[in-house]
């Protein structure tokens, strides 16, 4: 009986939970512990010695930092999924937003985005809004969240009027949030995965990555709305 | 500099208001419980002590249920006045008040209860009204105990993290107190910032401790 | 003075039950309540002062009804004009001797003593030979000095009656004799009637004009020495 | 079901060990401070009280500096035994112990100090050694106060959030205690889960309060 | 007995300084330390029992040196074989009367009394007429009963000397007379020497064979009544 810890970006919560179960079924004797948070904090944890074996981030920048700090085995790094960025509003919202610039309307008082310092979804949102020249204008309305799932939570509870999350997140909470529009002017969203350098369980870690990249893995991911890399 | 000054000032503002609120409520209820015998007296005590033993995140959950935009009071506030406490420094004050209330309350109650009842009786025979007895005898005699409780409450309010994070979020310059800023800086791997914030906070806490001890 | 006291009061606590049912009256100036501890003497005294509300009974002083369950009268303590010297003196530890003595002189905000009031307090301190302690705090003065402060604080309000609860119990035997004489002198000087609680027979010898003998929860006997009805003090004490 | 049972059992394990550790240290130091006069006595008291007034995130930072993989003790532990406390339930125990220590310590010290010294003196004249005096007189007499402090410490340890989050992370099944699970469930918008966890935690906290009161 | 006491001790606190420098000796069975409160009587008694360590001095009992700064002797309290009855009796509130009396009989783990020890405790309880209180806790018994428990607890260890600190101060005047007689009887029955602290002249009349009169921090006089050196007790008390 052995156990691997997979530190994965918050947006992977539902998909990787299923991936983990299927992997355990396919590899008897190996248990998967999943640790979800924003990619930035996950990187910090690994740097401080968190016993993670696999790291899956939601953006290339965080994985690049991990690579620079020699926290991952470079040769194991692979891109395994893609995603889209959407603007969501609470399901019962009366306001209708047809374009990003509608966010400047007076009735939109609070917009939640991930904190660009540590949340990849926040960085993509910053890019998209900056290219429309809206980032600085909208700043006073921002409610910065610690992870993309917190953005989703704020919108579903109606605490904010709008939020920017991944398409896959919006799909998870269909009954509570409505996709107002898709965002496009940002770098392509590519999820990289790699084995953590400090692991002593290189074998099962590699096997987990292989499973994610396998046909079965890709199928699960696409079921939750992730695109091919 | 401003990066540490802004959260420090915000923290002092939030903790100050929270301590004020907690002291007013805590001292009045403590006096009531120490002097008047009524049914459910000990239940009220237990209820007010609950935040001392309850995880701050659970308190945060309850506060969201109550003052969230769709909460019992929150929805009314929003529909009536168009305001919401979530993600505002006022929300942080509410969270910190709840969390630090038991500290003043407990200290004040035991301070009032340890006053020799003959002193209050003596004041009555000297012609003092009940209000006079409170302001000229009970309160001044309980003051050292109340002050110590208030200092602890202030320190607790300064350090509040879990409930504040859930209710007020972590908005730099708006609701990001020292405690949250430390967390943020460590999360973002900003080591110098983290160290600076930690040192400032430690100094303020030690000052509080020295004053209250 | 004319004092009539009749009080009933149940006290319940986890450990024990206590029932007081006591009555006495007197036309003399000095009433002494005597009996073992726990017999209800202090409870009677506090009922007279209005610090405890009896379950039933009647208390009247010089014809003025202070408490009466029948007619529903219950004058609050602060309006009874009764001075009370507590067994442990109950001086305010956060106030100086001067402030303690002047404490009851001005009872509405802002509680500052007028120049006249201060002068009066100073006169009292001198009369009680404690002027030099004016700025001391109760913690720093001796038991005998505390008693004088407590007396001065009660008498400065010119009460109609002075209640004293075991005034000498906390003092050394040596000091006790001296202060007993002093109190007798002060009482005569102020010409104030008094009800005193004690369990020391010596206090009876010096003070009792009316002697109320308590046993647990009730009055066993009420004796009047000035009436010369044949009651002899030494005989009573010997029994 | 297991989703709530696992964090509950983990919480009880972590809080249990933390309370044990805090009680052993807290009671011994409290007795020392209550009975022996030495230089820096009040400084030691202040130092042990610090966690009570310090933000948990700041404590978390210090703990990372000390027991983190690159910390003073942490690096030695890692190099010598190949173990690290970060992100383990043992790390959560360390964080909770530090946070709950002042509660036992303060209660025990005041319990020891409120014992009539004549009782200990009487025991000495009856032939008891100093150890005998401690185990047959001082400790049994201080016990109610110590117990109350221990219960509060247990509750505090159960609710620990900030420091645990930083030191032990939030790994389901490994370091995710109730307090963290509540935060996580709310974050993840998992309302039923959040509500279940909150109710369980509230019940446990109320039980603690009733027992300690 | 032969007792020699000479103690010096400085006590410093924020509010006040106190210096005790007292010496006396006696060959009689009953020594009474008399004087105002705060004069150092209790401090002397605790020095004899080894509960307080004097700064300098010498304490010897029947030729056995218990304390001597010169030769560096300081026998720990538990080996002095001295019984002590505290002013407030210092009964263990968490132990029954039976357990209190038997407390000092078995002092190594596991502290359970043997059947013989229990029988001895029961005999003592009977001798002190408190058998019916065996299972009561100190909180629930009266002052006079407490005194008997404290006495029994001290005497059951067969000490060489009994120290008593104001044994009657906490009692009613009425009860005091009765218990004073009882103590005199018990002392004779156990034939145990005693040092008693008091500020009540009546105790001197009943107990003093040697009288040590204290004033603040020192001994004013040490009188021996049994030697019939012309000292008259009533004369002393009158002065
Ligand atoms: Mg009384
Ligand atoms: Mg004494
Ligand atoms: Mg007395």
Automatic annotation (TrEMBL), chains C, E:
List, alphabetically, the InterPro entries matched: AAA+_ATPase, ABC_SmlMolc_Importer, ABC_transporter-like_ATP-bd, ABC_transporter-like_CS, P-loop_NTPase
Gene3D superfamilies documented for this protein: P-loop containing nucleotide triphosphate hydrolases (3.40.50.300)
Cite the Pfam families for this sequence.
ABC_tran (PF00005)
Per UniProt, the keywords (alphabetical) are:
ATP-binding, Nucleotide-binding, Transport
Q: Where is the ABC transporter domain?
A: 2-238
SMART domains noted in UniProt: AAA (SM00382)
**PROSITE patterns recorded for this chain?**
ABC_TRANSPORTER_1, ABC_TRANSPORTER_2
Q: Which GO terms describe its molecular function?
A: ATP binding; ATP hydrolysis activity
- In Swiss-Prot or TrEMBL terms, this protein is called ABC transporter related
Q: Which species does this protein come from?
A: Syntrophobacter fumaroxidans (strain DSM 10017 / MPOB)
């Amino acid at each position: 009986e052995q156990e691997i810890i997979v530190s994965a970006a918050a947006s992977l919560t539902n998909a990787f939970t299923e991936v983990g179960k299927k992997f355990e079924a396919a590899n008897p004797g190996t248990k998967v512990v999943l640790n979800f948070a924003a990619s930035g904090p996950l990187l910090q944890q690994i740097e401080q010695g968190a016993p993670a074996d696999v790291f899956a981030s939601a953006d290339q920048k965080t994985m690049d930092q991990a690579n620079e700090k020699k926290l991952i085995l470079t040769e194991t790094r692979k891109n395994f999924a893609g995603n889209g960025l959407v603007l969501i509003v609470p399901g019962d919202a009366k306001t209708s937003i047809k374009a990003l610039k509608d966010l400047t309307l007076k009735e939109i008082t609070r917009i939640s985005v991930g904190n660009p310092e540590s949340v990849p979804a926040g960085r993509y949102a910053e890019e998209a809004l900056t290219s429309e020249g809206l980032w600085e204008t909208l700043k006073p309305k921002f409610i910065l969240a610690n992870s993309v799932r917190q953005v989703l939570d704020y919108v579903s509870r109606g605490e904010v009027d709008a939020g920017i999350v991944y398409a896959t997140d919006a799909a998870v909470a269909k009954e509570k949030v409505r996709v107002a529009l898709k965002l496009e002017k940002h770098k392509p969203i590519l999820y990289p995965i790699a084995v953590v350098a400090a692991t002593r369980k290189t074998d099962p870690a590699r096997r987990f990555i292989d499973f994610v990249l396998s046909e079965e893995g890709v199928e699960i991911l696409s079921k939750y709305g992730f695109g091919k890399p | 500099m401003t990066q540490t000054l802004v959260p420090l000032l915000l923290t002092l503002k939030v903790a100050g208001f929270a301590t004020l609120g907690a002291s007013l409520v805590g001292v009045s209820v403590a006096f009531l419980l120490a002097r008047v015998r009524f049914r459910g007296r000990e239940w009220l005590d237990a209820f007010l002590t609950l935040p001392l033993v309850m995880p701050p995140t659970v308190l945060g959950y309850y506060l969201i249920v109550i003052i969230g935009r769709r909460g019992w009071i929150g929805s009314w506030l929003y529909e009536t006045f168009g305001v919401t406490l979530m993600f505002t420094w006022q929300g942080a004050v509410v969270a910190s008040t709840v969390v630090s209330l038991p500290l003043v309350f407990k200290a004040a109650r035991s301070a009032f209860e340890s006053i020799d009842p003959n002193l209050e009786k003596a004041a009555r025979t000297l012609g003092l009204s009940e209000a006079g007895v409170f302001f000229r005898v009970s309160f001044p005699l309980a003051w050292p105990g109340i002050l110590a409780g208030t200092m602890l409450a202030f320190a607790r309010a300064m350090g509040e993290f879990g409930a504040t994070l859930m209710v007020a979020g972590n908005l730099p310059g708006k609701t990001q107190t020292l405690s949250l800023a430390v967390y943020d800086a460590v999360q973002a791997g900003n080591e110098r910032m983290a160290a600076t914030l930690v040192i400032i906070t430690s100094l303020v806490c030690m000052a509080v401790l020295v004053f209250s001890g | 003075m004319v004092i009539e006291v009749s009080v009933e009061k149940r006290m319940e606590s986890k450990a024990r039950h206590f029932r007081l049912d006591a009555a006495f009256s007197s036309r003399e100036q000095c009433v002494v309540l005597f009996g073992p501890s726990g017999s209800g003497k202090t409870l009677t005294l506090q009922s007279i002062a209005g610090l405890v509300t009896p379950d039933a009974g009647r208390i009247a002083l010089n014809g003025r009804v202070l408490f009466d369950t029948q007619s529903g009268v219950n004058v609050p303590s602060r309006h009874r004009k009764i001075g009370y010297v507590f067994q442990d003196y109950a001086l305010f530890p956060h106030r100086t001797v001067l402030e303690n003595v002047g404490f009851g002189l001005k009872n509405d905000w802002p509680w500052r003593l007028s120049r006249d009031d201060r002068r009066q307090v100073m006169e009292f301190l001198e009369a009680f030979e404690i002027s030099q302690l004016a700025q001391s705090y109760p913690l720093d003065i001796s038991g005998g000095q505390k008693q004088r402060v407590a007396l001065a604080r009660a008498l400065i309000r010119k009460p109609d009656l002075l209640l004293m609860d075991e005034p000498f119990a906390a003092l050394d035997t040596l000091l006790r004799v001296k202060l007993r004489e002093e109190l007798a002198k002060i009482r005569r000087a102020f010409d104030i009637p008094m009800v005193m609680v004690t369990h020391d027979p010596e206090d009876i010898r010096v003070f009792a004009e009316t002697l109320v003998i308590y046993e647990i929860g009730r009055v066993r006997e009420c004796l009047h020495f000035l009436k010369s009805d044949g009651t002899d003090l030494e005989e009573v004490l010997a029994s």
